[in-house]
Amino acid sequence: MSGVIRLPSSSEMSYPPEVLVWTGAKSQAAEPYNMPPGLLLNGQRLQLPALPRRRESVSVTPVAQATSALLKPGVWRRGAEPAQPGVGFHVTAETACPVGHFCPVGLGMALPCPVGTFSDRMFLSMSSECLPCPPGHFCAASGLSAPSGPCAPGYFCLSGVSSPTPTGRSGHGGPCPQGHFCPRGTSLPQPCRAGSYGSLLGQVSCFPCPAGYYCPENITSYSGYPCPAGFYCPRGTKHAAQFPCPRGYYNPDPLTHSLDSCLPCPPGHYCGQENLTKPSGPCDAGWYCVSAAWNARPFDLDNYTSTNCLCPATATGGKCPAGSYCPEGSPEPIPCTPGSFCATSGLPTPTGPCQAGYFCIGGSESPAPVDEVTGGPCPPGSYCPVASHKPTPCPVGTFSSLPEQTTSSTCRSCPSGFYCKEAGLQAPSGWCPAGYYCDSSTGPVQDFSLYPCPRGYYCPVGTTKAMYHSCPVGTYGPRKGLTSITECQLCPAGKFCSLAGISAPTGKVQTALGLNMVSKGLEAYPDRTSSLQESVLQGTGAKQDLPASTPQMGLGASAAPQDTTVLKALQSQPRAHLELGLQKEPEAQRDAGSALLDNSVLGASCQPGRHLAT
Questions:
Q1: Mean pLDDT, to the nearest integer, of 352-369?
Q2: What mean pLDDT is predicted for residues 289-298?
Q3: Per-residue pLDDT band at 520 (split at 50, 70, 90)
């Protein structure tokens, strides 16, 4: 009778579990179970370690000879329940080699796949058929049907690794090297990507490249890769030329880290390409570059209209407008210089000088502006030669009543009888006031107060000469600045005033002679008889007799010379031309005193220029 022995499980013995041996034929004799067991495999006895004693006794039937065939590869036989109690076991079926194991040919037992391998298939017959633990995983035990898990972060695991944190000594993995990173389950170290670096062993991820530097792939330090001038490098920059300064900007410094580090092209210059370390050059003549210009002839402010506003703020420049000019390198339009005009746009210099008779304040588009903003025609009281930036006032002592005058010679001198106290007059300041004279024969009068009427004379309004109005014969002017003939004083009693224009009486006279002369005067001017008589009497006192030797005064009847006429009618003031623009001249002055004395006052006696007959 055929039979089998079912050996204890792995919890009861130290050798591989459930090794079944097929005995084949009926045994000749029975052996106690507690004896060293002997199993027959293909007719040969297999020596195994002694089994521990069990409570029950199991008998097996030794086999005299084996007659069965070998087990199939990858197959083993499991014992079933005994057919009859106490008789033994018999083979019931063949079973496939389980996953995680292999079953050598004829061994009749399943062996576990070794550490570092696994098997997810059945029917393995050799250990070489167990799969090495795949890269990125580890297989920490034997008999595995799947890897134990992924490789630990910061490590890499090659094929067949048995630990999640390999040391690297076995050549199957190890800590992540510098310049690389190893996330969980890494099979091969991954080089740090561009824009990062790895300076440490066992890095799970690489450090981002700091601002101001760039980091190529697989580097352990960023210090050797400073950002070059003309570029900027924010955090994580991958290569040197990744972030160039744009057109219109430049960057002279290395190690910069943001777009703000790029400087706008300075006013008057342009930056025509990327990654510049200095401006490309000055703006072209006839154009202006405000800031950040990327063209030598910018055009985004071609509609520029006012030098007071460069709008919008992002504008870079434009063509110089009319009324201004732009030399090379201009930061903004320059208003046409005072005294010149700029007729067209795009001018590098002004077109030419302002026209004579006009003035150009600045920014003028015309040689003869009329807008009063950039210029205008020369006003009265001034003159404007060529290239005038403002009207030139007529000099002090002159005036001009006409516009658009071109030279100072067109300014007229202040006429006699008038004064011109300041520059730029359109007409004389006024008539010469009473008590003063304004004589322009020696030069125009600016300050009439310097010319008071002299003693012996009086000066009504508009007097042209110092000695034009003399106090008449029989009177005198003791002080300066007399304004009318009424201020001339009568010759006092006892004295005579034989000349016109004197500041004091001519001399003393005898009483009889004086009274005789006074009486003659009173006959001519009965309205002043009492005043004259009183004046004489108060001045002389009692009548005096003339000495015997005093010659008789022969009063000649001949007239005085023409230039010594005692009184004559006041001449009318000379009238100025209408174009002077003066106020109406004062009426010819003649007061009651002007008729005080005339050629008939004294008849033929005591007339100026004549002597008393002996």
A1: 95
A2: 92
A3: very low
Q: Give residue for tokens 């160039």.
A: 244
Which residues fall within 8 angstroms of residue 363, CB to CB, at 6 or more apart?
A: 307, 323, 324, 335, 336, 342, 374
Angle at CA of residue 477, ends 472 and 478, nearest 5°: 155
3-state secondary structure labels for all residues of 172-238: CEEECCCCEECCCCECCCEECCCCEECCCCCCCCCEECCCCECCCCCCCCCCCCECCCCECCCCCCC
**Region of residue 435 (left: phi > 0; alpha: psi -120 to 50; beta: else):** left
Find, among 417, 421, 471, the residue nearest to 440 by Cα: 417
User: Closest by alpha carbon to 28, among 67, 60, 70?
Assistant: 60
Q: What integer pLDDT is reported at residue 96 of this predicted model?
A: 86
CA 46 to CA 109: how far, in whole Å? 14
Running DSSP on this structure, what letter comes out for residue 330?
B
Q: Residue 220 pLDDT more than 60?
A: yes
Give the CA distances from residue 95 to residues 20, 69, 91, 127, 215, in Å, rounded to whole numbers and listed in that order.
11, 16, 11, 18, 61
Tokens (6 digits) for 247: 């057109």
pTM for the predicted model, two decimal places: 0.52
Can you give the residue ranges of every domain in the chain?
1-96
* 300 contacts 316 by C-beta, under 8 angstroms: yes
- Beta carbons within 8 Å of 42's beta carbon, 6+ residues apart: 66, 68, 70, 106
**359-379 exposure pattern, b = at least 16 Cβ within 10 A, e = fewer:** bbbbbbbbbbbeeeebbbbbb
By C-alpha distance, which of 290, 291, 289, 263 is closest to 276? 263
Answer with the residue of higher pLDDT: 511 or 533: 511
Identify the three-state secondary structure at position 83: coil
Instruction: State yes or no: pLDDT of 279 exceeds 90.
Output: yes
- Assign 613 a pLDDT band (cuts: 50, 70, 90): very low
Contact, 70 vs 91, CB < 8 A?
A: no
Rounded Cα–Cα distance for residues 293 and 266 (Å): 8
Nearest to 558 by CA among 601, 604, 498: 604
Tokens, residue 389: 């930036």
Peptide bond into 312 cis (omega under 30): yes
332 three-state secondary structure: coil
Three-state SS string over 519-580 comes to HHHHHHCHHHHHHHHHHHHHHHCCCCCCCCCCCCCECCCCCCCHHHCCCCCCCCCCCCCHHH
Token code pair at residue 93 = 């079926």
Asked if residue 362 lies in contact with residue 337, where contact means CB atoms within 8 angstroms, the answer is yes
